[in-house]
Amino acid sequence: MAEAQPPALPDKRQVAASFSRAAASYDGVADLQRRVGESLLSQLPALQPARWLDLGCGTGYFSRALQARFPQGEGLALDIAEGMLRYARPLGGAGQFVAGDAECLPLRDGCLDLIFSSLALQWCEDFAGVLGEARRVLRPGGVLAFSSLCAGTLAELRDSWQQVDGFAHVNRFRREADYRALCAASGLELLGLQVRPQVLYFTDLRQLTHELKALGAHNLNPGRPGGLTGPARIRALVDAYERCRQPQGLPATYQVIHAVLRKGR
User: Fold this and answer.
1) Is residue 3 helix, strand or coil?
2) How far is residue 113's CA from residue 115's CA, in Å, rounded to a whole number?
3) Could you tell me if residue 97 is left (phi over 0), alpha (psi between -120 and 50 degrees) or otherwise beta?
4) What CATH number does residue 88 fall under?
5) What are the pLDDT digits (tens) for 72-112?
6) Per the domain annotation, does 206 fall within a domain?
């Protein structure tokens, strides 16, 4: 039997445009994103980076956290979404805010001691290329710490849509096994990797879909169905999702991977 291929990921231009539009609304609904990033910060090994990068900086929340943690270091913040950068720059945190792509960093070799990236790299199709770029720009002993999303994220919403029409209405992400294999082949030393599911609860389906849109993380799948969703399909989706309801509300599970890698000396 042929091995299952990783899913095709969204076009980067669509990702950049979606997150640019969401810049002003993002922080108001980003509780999970902050929780995941703070957990990743807590997993950093002891280090005092002279130069660090917040990769996929978004609104700059963790650029400011990194500056507070490493006040002697020089900070860079990079994102593919120009709208996010326009929002983040006035708030400070990093010395420079740069538009760029994690798969082709606009940085010279061996210029960083730390790359921090929380919930951004799931949008990169060439994850081997991301790791190769990290290895290139890190100095010996430098650290890459990232969190990302795995297959199984928003499984309740995906399965409910499957009962309605069978289309892919939920973003697809890599399997944990793919992350592990790519990290193992990266030439970086893997210090730790684990998946930590996070479950959010919503009063109704409308609250969940509003949050995904406000984050810029609604369905960006290639080949997704176009046009408006009719009332009958929405009612069918609500009915299907209601079967998942728990005492706390409607669950939405995020499969979050955390990993810390180091470049050999």
Assistant:
1) coil
2) 7
3) beta
4) 3.40.50.150
5) 999 999 999 999 999 999 999 999 999 999 999 999 999 99
6) no
